[in-house]
Fold each of these.
Amino acid sequence: MGYRDYKLLFSDSQTVTAEASDYNLDTEVTYPGWEKGGPLAAVVTVEKAATGTTGFNIYVVHSASASPTKDGTDLCSVTCPVANLVKGAEIIIPLPQGIPILRYVGLYYNRINGDESMVVSAYLTTYPISQQ
C-alpha cells in the first residue's frame, strides 16, 4: 500500500453503486500546482469484493465545477473485470503529466452492466507507489 494522506482521499470505504467518488481535490485552493511535480497515481483499494456481471471502468476525471463526472473531461482510465476486484486488490492508475488540469479532480466509477457493486477506498499518491 502506498502512503495514504487522508487529505488526498477520493473514497473512504465507499460503497460503489453511485458513479462519482465521495471526495474531490481542489487543485487551485487546497493543492495549487500539484500537477507540476513528480508523477502521481490514483490508487483504488478494494475493501469488499465486487459483485455483478461484468466490471467497472474507473476514470480519473477533472472539471471546473466542484463535482467532476464522466463528461469528456477524463484524464485516464482502467477497465477492471469483477473477477479481478477481490478484497485487498489495488488498482493503480498513473496520471498523465504535462497537461493542463482543471480545478477539481475526482474519480468516476462506471458500472459496465449496471448491476455491479463493491466497497473501495481511493487516494492520490506519488508514482511509482511509495511503500511505507
Amino acid sequence: MSRDGSMKLVALGLGGNVGDPRAAMADALRELDARSDCRVLAVSRLYATPPWGKTDQAEFLNCCALIETSLHPESLLDVCLDMERRRKR
C-alpha cells in the first residue's frame, strides 16, 4: 500500500520483441488489472520501434499504460519484475 493508502496514477512502459510481445503485454495488463491494488485505466496503441545497440534482432513492440495503484513504487516494481520472471522475460 502507499504510505497513506490512497490510489496514485502511474504510467508504465511495456515492450518486447521475443515470442508474441502483443499477447505477452495484453496478458500482463490483464494480470495487473485483476489485482485489488491496481486498475488499468488506459493503454496506448502499439508502436513498432527498431532495436537500439544490438541491432541484429527483431523490432520491438511498445506501449504505455496508465494505471491506478495503492502500491508503493518499489512494491509495484517488485510486482512487475515477478510477472516478467514468471514469463521468463
Amino acid sequence: MSFCRTSAFLVRYLVPFCCFWGSPSLAQSNSDYDRALAEFRAGDYSAAADLFARVEAASPASTDALLYEAKSLVHLEKYAPADTVLRGYVKLHRNSSDALYMLGFVLNREGRPDDSLATYTQAAAISQPTADDLKIVGLDYVLLDDYPDAIKWLEKAVSLDNKNKDAWYYLGRAYYTKARLADARRAFQAILDLDPQNARAENNLGLILETEGKPAEAAEAYRKAIAWQEQAAQVSEQPYVNLGNLLAEQDHIPDAIAPLEKAVALAPNNAYCHMILGVNHRKVGNLDIARRELLRATELEPDNAVAHYQLGRLYKDLHEIDRAKAEFDRAEALQSRAAGAHPLSEAH
C-alpha cells in the first residue's frame, strides 16, 4: 500500500532558496533531510526515522520530514509513535489527505476501527480514496464484525483496481466467513489468475473444498500451497496446520503429526498450532509431548477455553484427576464468561 503520495520535490523546492541556506542550522537540516531520504530509499527505515526527526527538530514545519518519519515508522510497524507523528503533521497541514489516509491506516493497525473510519471519511472529503484506502476501510468493518459493509467496501476496492491481490484476498476471506463459497472461490481464483502460484490463495481454495466435503481435493490444494511457498521469503504455517487438521479428521493421525510439527516450528507463538498438535499427540498416546504442547497453548492464550478443556482431557488420561478437574472448571468458567460462547467440543 502506498501510504504517502506527497511529493518531497514540491515542499523542498517551492520554498525560497535562501530559506535553506540562510543559516547554518537550516543548512545542516537540509543535509540531514537528503541523508534521511537516501536512507529511506535504501530501506533503512530506522535510520531514516531518526534523521527525519532531527530535521523536524532543527527547522519545524519547513519540510515534509514528519510525514516521511511517520512512513518510516509504519514500515517498522511502530504504529503508536507513527500515530503521534502524524497527528503533529496534521495539526500543521489540516488539508493533507496523504497524512489523513496514512493515519487511517495506522489507526486500523492499532485496532481502532471507529477512529480509522472517521479519519478516512475526513481524508475522502479532500481527495478520492485509492483501492488500497478502500481495502483498509473494509478491514475496519471486519474488525467491527460488520461483514456486509466490509464486503461492500472491499468490492469497491477491487472494482477500482482489479489487480489488487490483497483486496481480492480480504474480500475472499469476508465471503468465506459469510459462507458465500462461490464468491470466495471467485475472489481467490482472481488472485491465482494474476499470480498462478499464490500459496495464500491456493490454501484458501483448500478451505473452500474442505467445507464443500471434498477432502482429497482440499488436501491436494494444501500440498500445492506448501510446495509453492517453499521458495518464498515468508513461509506461512497455515497450509501445514490445515493439512494436518484434515488428515486427522480423516483418521490419518500419524500422518497429521509431521505437518502440525512444521506449523508449530513456523509459528512458535501460535496457541492454536500448539493445541492441535497436542490434541493429536494425545490421540496417538504421546502423552508427554501432548502435555508440553497443551501447556504451551494455555500459556500463550490463558483465556482459551478450548485449550484448557483439551488439557483437562489429557490430565484425565494421565489419571491426574485434580488437575483435570481444575482445567475443566477453568474451561467452563471461561466459556460462560464469553459472550455468545458455543458448547465445547473436542478439537479434531
Amino acid sequence: MRRYRQRGLTTVEFAIIGVLVVTLLFAIIEFSRIVFTLNMLQEGARRAARVAAVCSVGDAAIANAAVFINLPGLSTSNVAVEYLGQDGAVLANAAGANYSQIRYVRVRIHDYSMAIAIPFVAPTFDAPEYSSTLPRESLGVPNFGAAPTC
C-alpha cells in the first residue's frame, strides 16, 4: 500500500530539479554570450581608435571599424570619436582645429544594451561604456604622396 501512495513522487521531484537545471543551463549560456559581447565591444573601441589615429578627422571608416562584429542593436550612433589636446581636454572643433593641436584620439562605444534570455531575470543587459585612447599618428595627412584610404 505504501508504494502506491508515492507513485508520482519522482515525477514531482524531477519537475522541481528540472526547472533549476534548465535555468542554470540558460544562465551559463547567456553569461558566456554577455562576456563575448563585452569583449567585442572593447575590441571594437580598440580597432576604431587605431583607425582614428591614422585616418582623417571625421572619416566614416572610424565608426565602421567599431561596429565590425555586427552585434544586434549596435550601430554607428553608439560610437563617439573625440580628438584630445595635450592636456587631454576634448577639442571643441576638431574638424577645424590645427592638426598640431590634436595629440590623442579617443573612441567611445556607449549606450549599448542587449536582450538576454535567462528566466526570472531582467530582459536586457546594459553594457558599460568602453573607450580606447591612442596617440595620434598621421590623421590622414601624409608627409609625402597621396592620402591613404581608410
